[in-house]
Amino acid sequence: MEIIVQPDSQQASWLAARLVRKLILEKPRPVLGLATGNTPLQLYKYLVKMHREEGLDFSQVITFNLDEYIGLSPDHPASFHNFMWTNLFNQINIRPENVHIPDGLAPDIPACCEKYEQQIKAAGGIDLQILGLGTNGHIGFNEPSSSLSSRTRLKTLTDQTRKNYAVFFGGEENVPFHAITMGIGTILEARTCLLMAFGKKKARAIALAVEGPITASVPASALQLHPRAIILLDREAASELKNLDYYRWVFEHKPEWQKI
Question: pTM of whole model > 0.70?
Answer without folding.
Answer: yes
